[in-house]
Amino acid sequence: MNFVYPLVLILLPLSLIPFFINQTSKNIYSWSEMLHIDIVSRIVSLFFKIVSTIIIFLIILTLSEPYADQKIILKKGKGAQIGLVLDRSASMDDPFAGGDNNESVGETKSAAASRLIVDFFDSRTDDMVGVITFSNSAMFILPLTHSKEAIKAAVNATAGNALFQTNIGAGLTSSAELFTSIENSGSRAVILLSDGAGRIDAKTQQKIKEWFDKYQIGLYWIVLRQPGGISIFEEDVPLHQDYQLPPQVELYEFFKTFKSPFQAYEAEDPKSLEQAIKDINLKERKPIIYEEKVPGEKYAPMLLLTSLILSLMLLFLKFIEVKSLK
After folding, report:
1. For the segment 254-283, what is each residue's pLDDT rounded down to a tens digit?
2. What secondary structure, in 3-state letters, does the chain show?
3. pTM of the complete model
């Protein structure tokens, strides 16, 4: 048992006060020898003192606010441990171009992504989710957690000011670190959402591949593509003047070398983005075993109620005693 205010326990000796108070009778007798020994009265008096001691003891315990240790229980469910990696480069604040005439048209990419991602996790019950954002560097937002309130707040918080860089390598490296101190529940994945790509040096590429393989992390990449822009799925993509593939295509070719599962999507409007998220939702409903922390029980309300019941019982008995003397 733990206590919020353990210093209050130094008052516990006060619970013995009833044993140091002698009960006096209001009746006057000229000769004490005429009084017989009343065993019943002595028993009743002792009972009153014991109950009074218990009441004081319980009140002091209540003031110390005792509580039980937190419990960790294993539960079975369907879901995954998911690392959410969100692009926060300045281009994510641009509105989606094109699309059909619905209320989502005109949303910025970051706003649409936040809305759909929150809906995605609201519809799932057993996921653990961590959040990483990146622009010129990665920013750790939230460790893996079951708390829907924390996940929603973290996703909504990513809609802040952005920079004009897309350092995907830093975002992916940080996302792998989310899983290093968490036991594998049976399914792990990183959802990378970006509207562009940057080049990742060979050393960082090797580190990302090793970590994703070591920690058994699948990767889903959702590319928010401008209509008419280069598609990562195109064949015979023309090389740049420096004889390199476009960054997004080069990144796609790198992801295909992963030993862990990889799936890429392209979205040109909120509707296609929603379809990509729905597909991930179907793929990541696997049986998992996960830990749930159960807060320790608070004992103060129960102790207070018990002391109140005992007090009312004493008052009732005292009322009966007064009536019997009349």
Report:
1. 999 999 999 999 988 888 888 999 999 988
2. CEECCHHHHHHHHHHHHHHHCCCCCCCCCCCHHHCCCCHHHHHHHHHHHHHHHHHHHHHHHHHHCEECCCEEEEEEEEECEEEEEEECEHHHHCECCCCCCCCCCCCEHHHHHHHHHHHHHHCCCCCEEEEEEECCCEEEEEEEECCHHHHHHHHHHCCCCCECCCCHHHHHHHHHHCCCCCCCCCCEEEEEEECCCCCCCHHHHHHHHHHHHHCCCEEEEEEECCCCCCCCCCCCCCCCCCCCCCHHHHHHHHHCCCCCCEEEEEECCHHHHHHHHHHHHHHCCEEEEEEEEECCCECHHHHHHHHHHHHHHHHHHHHHHHHHHC
3. 0.66
